[in-house]
Design brief:
Number of strands: 12
Strand order of the largest sheet: 6-7-9-8
InterPro entries: Bact_Secretion_Sys_Channel, GspD-like_N0, NolW-like, NolW-like_sf
Domain GspD-like N0: 7-76
Structural class: alpha+beta
Oligomer: single chain
Pfam families: Secretin_N (PF03958), type_II_gspD_N0 (PF21305)
Number of helices: 8
Subcellular location: Membrane
CATH class of the largest domain: Alpha Beta
Largest sheet: 4 strands, antiparallel
Helix content: 25-40%
CATH topology of the largest domain: Phage tail protein beta-alpha-beta fold
Main location: membrane
Order of helices and strands: EHEEHEEHEEHEEHEHHEEH
């Protein structure tokens, strides 16, 4: 009925839990033999179908597995294979409209570092997990937040030189306007701008009213001082 699902599993085999979720969601799951191991999931209160699916996702994630929904079947595959197993955007359950998990492969920045730095930008229901072996970020959130994070990551994931990424939360100033103003100040004389300064990036994040700054440690410090002074 509508009272939600009671989840109380103590060290059950993962395939047994998958079958339970399959019955609860009315969706068919296909998984490889290598989906093994035990799972303990206890929820003090009944959960919705979407929450049950999210629990499955996190139980899979800690084992390096994820789901790929092709509309007919939900396949359980190793995270590293998910990109080739049917698209990078993975649905988060049948009724969780707009809630997606996306894998973002990184070329130049480390997944662990960037996940730590950008975690303040994730919504309270979302998650941002680094997957070290393939240097990939796994972002789970509402679709528009996932797209926003992907855009920020794309701006940051370029060749750099001893740069660090810093998130500066703003109390009063508007992120978009301040980013433009800082760029004007820092690049006012582009001929004289050093190579480091030209490589600096200041990306506004409107949702959290923060600036994501990519710069050398000394330039980052300079930008922080400018922010305090403006």
């Amino acid at each position: 009925g509508d009272g939600g699902l009671t989840i109380n599993f103590d060290k059950v085999e993962l395939p047994v839990f998958v079958k339970f979720i399959s019955r609860a969601t009315g969706r068919n799951f296909v998984f490889a033999e290598k989906v093994a191991g035990y799972v303990t999931v206890v929820s003090p209160t009944p959960v919705s179908v979407d929450e049950a699916f999210a629990v499955l996702e996190s139980a899979l994630a800690v084992r390096g597995l994820t789901t790929v929904d092709d509309g007919v079947l939900i396949r359980i595959v190793p995270i590293k294979d998910a990109r080739t197993a049917g698209g990078s955007v993975i649905s988060k359950g049948p009724r969780a409209v707009g809630f997606t998990t996306r894998l973002i492969p990184l070329d130049h920045i480390g997944a662990e570092d960037i996940a730590k730095t950008l975690s303040p930008l994730v919504s309270k229901d979302g998650s941002l997990l680094p997957y070290g072996p393939s240097n990939t970020l796994i972002v789970s959130d509402l679709a528009n937040n996932v797209a926003r994070m992907a855009a920020i990551v794309a701006t940051l994931d370029v060749p750099g030189h001893e740069e660090q990424v810093e998130v500066i939360a703003l109390a009063h100033a508007d992120a978009g306007a301040l980013a433009a103003e800082l760029q004007k100040i820092l690049w006012s004389d582009s001929d004289k701008a050093t190579k480091d300064e030209r490589r600096m990036r200041i990306v506004p994040d409107e949702r959290t009213n923060s600036l994501v700054v990519v710069a050398s440690p000394s330039d980052t410090h300079r930008i922080q001082r400018l922010v305090e002074g403006l």
